[in-house]
Amino acid sequence: MEAFDNKHPENDYWVRFNCPEFTSLCPITGQPDFAEIRISYLPDVKMVESKSLKLYLFSFRSHGAFHEDCVNIIMKDLIRLMDPKYIEVTGIFTPRGGISIYPYANYGRPGTKYEQMAEHRLMNHE
After folding, report:
1. Can you give the pTM of this predicted structure?
2. Residues tagged active-site
């Protein structure tokens, strides 16, 4: 993934991405799992470039991981790339075997109001 400079780091504002065609591989069966991945973040100095994010997300098509793992890997890779003030990643996976899984992970920069925001949003997440 590639990052670029945020021209408005002094502002708090949301950037949201939606990837409705996300695919990963089940690590047990090797069968494809389909999902919509939603990424929302409050940028600081760096922002993710959208085409590189798309290519990164599409790389999961050949990656075997559980749904929860995919969401956490995506979030952690974006944190390493951008060091955002706040980020959350949700996976809305299509049912498999009669059950849907919607993992959610978030992060707020430690020692800031964003850490408190992350805790609040996690505790109040549906």
Report:
1. 0.94
2. 26, 33
